[in-house]
Amino acid sequence: MGNAKFWYYPYSGNRLVTIDMGEGLAEMFSEFRKDADGGISLNGHSYRSVGLTQEIITIQRDRMILGVDKAMEFRALQAHLDNGNVCSFSADSSKAWCGYILTSPLSSGSTTVEVSNNPFSSFVGSNVLAADDFVIFDTQPPAAITEANKISSLSAGFSSSNGGTLTLDRGCAFRYDIDTFVRWFRFIPIAKRPIEDIGRSIITNEHGLLYSLELRLEIDYASWFSFVPAYPDKVNELLSFPDEEGSDYYEAGLVGLDKVIADRIKEVDVGGLGSHEYYGSHVRGN
User: Fold this and answer.
1) Residue 156: phi, psi to the nearest 5?
2) What ranges do the domains of the chain cover?
3) How confident is the model at residue 131 (pLDDT cuts 50, 70, 90)?
4) pLDDT of residue 40
5) CA 281 to chain centre
6) What's the pTM value of the predicted model, to 2 decimals?
């Protein structure tokens, strides 16, 4: 079992920074922000329209065993997040894995699903899952759907660089006919800090002796799903990110996570309104 870890690329730079907590977490749980509207008709029928869906994850570690030395590493991460940049996190670094679904459509009740390589393996590691690991299926807002399942087995040769086939413990609940990611249930590939938390310290201490972490992150779905390639190159897109030996400036073809996300976005004009389109066709199938 690996330790809890954060990964980020200090913007604007291209050197990977990893915070290894040296232990597991005390708490990690999710809640959901839903933007919905609805009403009840005269005949008593209830209507609902759902827009934004946002998963917000709370991460806590009381009285960190590595103390003040580890606590000081979080000051730079907080500055990075408070400026609107992204990080990755896994409660167990040896399980940091995700991949997008290649089986399309994936019918409700299916127990086998073909998935891609892990787009982020060059900085989180070449991890793979195992039988009895829990996974989350995620689609993108608006009206995103999410469900959890358990892996029964993996196909021979399954790897972080090539993907493979997952066999599930039970049939999936939903039908997936749009871009969908599968991830280990405690791995957050692309996340930002909620704007209402900016400025609040993520580290607290007791009399300067015992240091604790409490941080909320929200999944940045648009940035995450920009890593789903458009057809015909959807099967595998191997990405290389800088490591800890990277430099503090951009080099051609070798940039950090925030810059890669920015490069995968282009401005488009929709009905006279400025908008953005992502490299991945993330609304395909709608």
Assistant:
1) -60, 135
2) 5-278
3) very high
4) 86
5) 18
6) 0.86
pLDDT in tens, 69-102: 999 999 999 999 999 999 999 999 999 999 999 9
Nearest 5°: the CA angle 140, 144, 148 is 100
Question: From the CA atom positions of the chain, what is the Rg in Å?
Answer: 20
Closest CA to 121 of 101, 96, 138, 102: 96
Give φ, ψ of 259 to 5 degrees: -70, -35
Give me the DSSP letters along 230-247.
PTTS-S--------TT--
| Nearest residue to 164 (alpha-carbon basis) of 240, 250, 247, 235 | 235
Greater confidence (250 vs 164) lies with 164
Report pLDDT for 118.
Answer: 95
In 200-285 the beta strands, taken as DSSP E runs, fall at: 203-206, 210-219, 265-270, 273-278
The residues with which 146 forms a beta bridge, in sequence order, are: 138
The H-or-E segment that residue 71 falls in is helix 67-82
What number of other Cβ atoms are within 10 A of residue 173's Cβ?
12
Nearest residue to 181 via CA among 139, 123, 233: 139
Q: Looking at residue 231, what is its pLDDT?
A: 60
Task: Report helix, strand and coil shares of the chain as percent, to nearest 5.
Answer: 15, 40, 50
Confidence of residue 283 (pLDDT cuts 50, 70, 90): very low
